[in-house]
Amino acid sequence: MRGGCLLSMSSPVIVLCSNRDNSVSDLIQTIQASLLALVGRGVQIIPAFIAAIAVLLATRYGAIPVKRITGATLEKLVGSPSLRALFIQLVSVALWGTGILIACILIFPDLGLGDLIALLGLGSVAIGFAFQDIFKNFLAGVLLLLNEPFRLNDQIIVADFEGTVEAINVRSTEIRTYQGERVVIPNAIVFTSAVQVLTDRPSRRTDLAIGLDYNTPLPRARQLLQTALADVEGVLHHPPVEVDLVGFGDSSIDLVVRYWSLPQAVHMRQTRSQVVMALKSACDAADLNIPYPIRSVYFFDQQTFNDHRASSSNLSNSAH
Prior knowledge:
This protein is of the alpha+beta class. It is about 55% helix and about 20% strand.
């Protein structure tokens, strides 16, 4: 036995070798051939890979002027800012889809159009389940941009947030609160929630409560409060100011002053301050009292006022 071969002593000499050495040699040759094929394939694909990266970079930087030109063109053709934003975003999505498709064709040249369609058909099901929230927000964003329940720079209240609409994207709506905070709300929430548009009309009404003393002559007070707001900065003349008597309070006659101003929050806040000062000055000048909450407590001498005894007597007589 020598070197894995069996030597026979009979003549002629016959050498019997085991098959294990041949198997190992074949395996090594197969691995070497596979590695060489992979390396060769990698070398061949490097130019295509570089070209695909170049296409994606061109798409990335080429989309900027295309979106700019599209926006300038749409400004002349489409009056709605929301629709212009929708078209610009659709153009961006189409550019990126085209760039990615060209990059895939460059990297996989053997992949035909039918294969791409089949791949998209199979992948759309998996992608639909994996990214259903993203697609839901996308469709909601498209519907919001088409229906336009609110527009850019409108002030809205949605999902416990109040602020100015800064952007309506295909995935989310961005608002800026009055405290300067940026809130990003998914479009699916905006689309399915009640939205209060505060700036939908050119004016908004404010109802300001005020109480006057019970000794106040009400017709005179009502006329005085209406006149006091005639020259207040920020109060609109149309619709006119209204003063309503709404009830009897614990310590005052309750009135509500209703006036109109510009709908933006900053204008309403500033106008409200001016109205409060004007009403207070008018009441002071006319000697009308704005009372504090008052509770009157009466003390009775039970020896002098014995009405409780009379009540007890009445009860006993009715019992007999």
